[in-house]
Amino acid sequence: MRTGSLLSIVASIGAVKPNIIFFLTDDQDQMLGGSMPATAPGGATPIPKTQKLLGDGGMLADNMYIHTPICCPSRAETFTGRYFHNLKVDGQCPAGYGGQDDEGNLCCMHVDEKLVNNYTMATGLSDAGYKVGMFGKYLNYLSTGPPPPGFDAWMANGGGAYYAPQFFTHGITGLPDGSVHFNETDYTTAVVGNYSNAWIREVKDEPFVAFINPKACHEPFLPSPWYNNTWEDDWPATAPRPVSWNTTKQQRANHHPTIANMDLLSDETATCIDETFKNRWRTLLSVDDLIADTHQLCVDLGIVDRTYFIYSSDHGFQLGELNLAMDKRNVYEFDIKIHLAIKGPGIPQGATFSQPATNVDIAPTILELAGVTSMQVDGRSLVPYLKQSSTSTDQQRPWRNSTYHEYYFVGLPPKCGQNNPIETPDNNFIAVRHQHGSPFGNILYAEFTTGTQGPGFVNFSNIDFYELFDMDADPWQLNNIYNSTTQQVRDALHQDVHQWLQCKGTDCQ
To answer: What burial letters (b/e) apply to 464-481, b meaning 16+ CB within 10 Å?
Structure first.
């Protein structure tokens, strides 16, 4: 961990403020071939146009991670630039996926929404003179009232349905303020694309930030009618089968109970996994269209040269790895590693950057690109490592060599015909993903505790289980080496992760 100063930024664009378009997908994996860089055989990808525009035409992250691998916390962290423990409810959020806490405040997946809605980057962007629009999924549980501070245009939901989606609306031309329920033939990605693009046309002469957040590729993985049966000849016939796919209980015996207790994958489950994999790619074809169409719109409007395009996901996914049929919620690389692509003024084409980062760093990055001068965040701006010439006052500070991860049990039943639930109450964790250059080397270290946030408050004071993986020798996290590690190293790892757990603001940077 590094200490630093409050986010303090010097605008480097000159008199003309840049536009920023941020695309955020749902559950789009990086390790299993669903995003960038392509990992499927032969470079097959469901997003070929985006790969060319933003991957080849922009810059990609080598070591981008998610702080919390589940939707609501992840998105809350992305929009505020804060870690989970600084957004969390003090009591219980009775309905894990959304409800009210003990004081009547909105909450979802243990996130206190008042700590999110009043402190998103939209407030700083609006104060700096930007028009700000939100289109698509925001948090999983939304208020029916006006949008959070800072948003001029609001067409948002908690994910909703692929067909006949419903959105809360405010300031959207052609739609009433309140809520809108679209027709059964309306496909959510197309609706989000059409209305976000229409709004961009309206505000093209002013600096704007558009958050465009399609539902894809979240469950139930329903493609658009025009891609319902698409499967290219060079695409994989099945979901990936890494060494961690369909492992024996003996191979998983040194993992925490959720993983150790999973059964072998049946033929029925394997078929479900493969169909899920294919339909996820089919939903992403519409995302590919949306991104390409939005980029082309900016070309047609003559604003592409002063617009940043940023593209990421709220977490990864699993498709049979460690015998988890689908979903996310786990500490392992397939759930926490994500893509980040950026294209725009001063960003080199076809390049990569290696600094370890998480979604908590996205808000300070966007704020710096917009020239916002101050806002309290836990993350750090990546701009000094993205732009060929940066005048950032943060450029001289050393960057971190690890990323921090935190998760609290929500609960999910079995999937794809499995007998075991995808997670059990032992799946509360804090973890640090150390990279090459760290004193600990290229490792993943995690501590687990049991609880539901109901009768007992989970604060990681009583650790039930430890996991440690050598990511060079064991990239799919099969061999837990914690018990064979020296006590001195264990103590240092424990101290480090608990320092992260307590951090706030500059202490996290």
So the answer is: ebbbbbbbeebbbbbebe
